[in-house]
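Bug #77: duplicate submission created two jobs. Keeping one. Sequence:
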Amino acid sequence: MSEGNFQTISSPSAFARSRLYYALIGGFERTPPTFALQREHYPAYEALYITRGKGSFRYGETEYLLEPGDGVCYDMRLPHAFRADPLEPYEMRYVVFQGPDLDSRWREWFDAPCVAVRGSGEPGEPKYAELLTEVLTQMADGSFEREPSISGLLYGLLMEMLAARRSSPGERRELPQPHLEAARRFLEERYAGTDVDIRSAARRAGLSYAHFIRRFKRAYGASPKEYLTQIRLGHVKQALLHTPLSVAEAAEAAGFGSYNAFLHTFLLHEGCSPTIYRKAWRRSGEAEAAQNVTDSPPSTGIAAPHT
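Kept job's structure:
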């Protein structure tokens, strides 16, 4: 693909808008020295990659300096602005995209509405930049037959951005220290009990609550609350596949105090109900034992939904 200025505008089909991740606008821009753009709101996401030059990107109250090899992906519904360096104006590839479940997925994958990935300094482009280029190539084709492929490329681009961000120099995980390991074991050993909470784990680590959360996330890649939820979901899934416990019993045994909260969390993380998960992954012999199990709340023990 040549790097002359171009822009491709897509009109996704109804099928793509309801089922797929779809591209709206994409292209390559070589900005002039006076380039400045401010936008208050647009109902989509944008991914961009800087190929040459310098400039700045302001998102909310945060300003990012952009250089070759840097990538940014962000929710365009918050105020943002671009400005080129007048001596070395930047060049960038970009794609604006959306998807029917992208808002909820974004919250699962990223901890902020804007993520920036610094260039590694290694030769060649990162994988997400290659995927962005392929999206632009397929957008230029203009046919509806390309939509499933573009959707897969956009999903892959987001996953590569997530992986690159977590491994970038500013986001490297620190090696767990003994006091953090003690707190992690505390969460793992007491995940199902009523006495487990994040503040108790922080005291085990000998850290303030806020400092503990920051240190734990840098060490393990998840906040203490997220880590505890992952432990509990893991035990629920084991119970669903390998025991005759009902869904409600499995949730209660794993430490979920509210059935409604459990069901919401399970749907958010797995994309399906506990019953569908059990039917899809349980071995045929074991499945017969659970054929009458549903996602209905229990009659006692865990709070039932309000009607």
